[in-house]
Amino acid sequence: MQGKIALEEHFAIPETLMDSAGFLGEAVWPELSARLLDIHGRRIQEMDKHGIETMILSLNAPAVQAIHDVKKANEIAKRSNDFLAEQVAKNPKRFQAFAALPLQDPDLAARELERCVKDFGFRGALTNGFSQAGTPDTCLYYDLPQFWPFWETVQKLDVPFYLHPRNPIAAWAQIYEGHNWLLGPTWAFGQETAVHALRMMGSGLFDAYPRLKIVVGHMGEGLPYSMWRIDNRNAWTGVSPNYKAKRKIADYFHANFWITTSGNFRTQTLIDAMLEIGADHILFSADWPFENVDHAANWFDTASISESDRIKIGRTNSMRLFKLGNE
Ligand code: MN
User: Fold this and answer.
1) Which site from 5, 114, 259, 302 is most exposed, i.e. has the minimal number of CB atoms within 10 Å?
2) In a domain, 40, yes or no
3) Using CA of residue 163, residue 185, residue 225, residue 192, what is the dihedral sign?
4) Are 63 and 128 in contact (CB under 8 A)?
5) Residue range 153-158: average pLDDT?
6) What is the DSSP string of 149-199?
7) Would 327 be classed as within a structural domain?
8) What is the pLDDT of residues 280-318, one digit of tens each?
9) Assigned domain for 35 exists
């Protein structure tokens, strides 16, 4: 399919590059680091070859979220956003941008998002899970009350917020002890992000700000597969779930969430997601440079779905959600 939009596509600046070292092994680091630092070369070739018209770019992970010195986190976010704005300006038809945000301080994050959206025309924000604020052990999840004014700004700006994965800190990762292979994209990323998203849904955040639009990657980080059970476990007891939100979790998932195909190129999984959240809330993505564009595109272009769903997922849903102009 030509004209695809992809939106979980990362780059690095020299200050954040090493955050991506060690994930995929030393043998591929020369290749991965070159992919991360490139914007206008190999990346465009991959897009041309595989029918991707536009990538919405975001900083690698965990980057800003792991900088517990708040001032430094703000500095790196601004530096990255300034750099990204310059790159997008060179080729806006092919590249758009998500802001990196210093959510260690919700007020600073709101101001930075406002700057990126109003001054640079960024399409939203992409944040790498919880933020470590002040000390390495202080992990802030965005359902917490201090973040609600930030969310008010996000809703007011009317831009989507991509909740991208990161690993749990070592002190919270005992379950993986002796099984490091489960960290990262294999399992821990999805687990960490799904719980974060569920915290937000259960907190009542979407009752207060019903027009928030949250994007999660990797075909929904397992959420579509578990959605029925989340709302229906032990239904015979008739006992209401013990959370602050007013509605069923699935109601928020349907209304406030979009999922992408990043790094999860599997038709069986896509069809489950289509049955749970609907084709209107699914967006094509690759997860370059951690996954290959050809793997994403070759799978998606031939997946057994209707052509009208392919066009929605590959292009028009994203055009509408990110206000990318004419469809
Ligand atoms: Mn990613």
Assistant:
1) 302
2) yes
3) negative
4) yes
5) 98
6) HHHHHHHHHT--EEEE--PPPGGG-GGGTT-GGGTGGGTHHHHHHHHHHHH
7) no
8) 999 999 999 999 999 999 999 999 999 999 999 999 999
9) yes
- Pairing mode of beta strands 131-132, 139-140: antiparallel
* CATH code: domain of residue 20: 3.20.20.140
Structural domain count, the chain: 1
247 CA from centroid of ligand 1 (Å): 30
CB 152 within 8 A of CB 211: no
Q: How far is the CA of 75 from the centre of ligand 1 (A)?
A: 22
326 found inside a domain: no
Query: Rounded to the nearest whole angstrom, what is the distance from the C-alpha of residue 267 to the centroid of ligand 1?
Result: 20
In this prediction, residue 327 carries a pLDDT of 46
Within 10 angstroms of residue 312's Cβ, the number of other Cβ atoms is 22
267-273 long-range Cβ contacts below 8 angstroms, 24+ apart: 267/299, 267/303, 267/304, 267/305, 269/219, 269/225, 270/219, 270/303, 270/305, 271/305, 272/224, 272/225, 273/219, 273/220, 273/224
Assess whether pLDDT exceeds 50 at residue 157: yes
Q: How many angstroms does the Cα of residue 21 sit away from the middle of ligand 1?
A: 14
Nearest-angstrom CA–CA distance, 143 and 67: 20
Task: Give the mean pLDDT of 90-103.
Answer: 98
Task: State the Cα–Cα distance between residues 81 and 113, nearest whole angstrom.
Answer: 10
How many angstroms is it from 85 CA to the middle of ligand 1?
A: 20
Tokens 């999860």 found at: 264
Q: Report how far apart, in Å, the C-alpha atoms of 239 and of each of 198, 202, 246, 253 are.
A: 19, 16, 14, 21
The one-letter code for the residue type at 72 is K
What's the one-letter identity of residue 217?
A: G
Look at residue 23 in the predicted model and tell me its pLDDT. Answer: 83
Which H/E stretch holds residue 259?
A: strand 257-260
Q: Domain limits at 302?
A: 4-321
CB-count exposure of residue 11 (10 Å: 0-12, 13-18, 19+): buried
Q: How far is the CA of 286 from the centre of ligand 1 (A)?
A: 8
Q: Which of 287, 294, 301, 309 is catalytic?
A: 287
Per the annotation, the verdict on 287 as an active-site residue is yes
pTM of the entire structure? 0.98
Query: 326 pLDDT exceeds 60?
Result: no
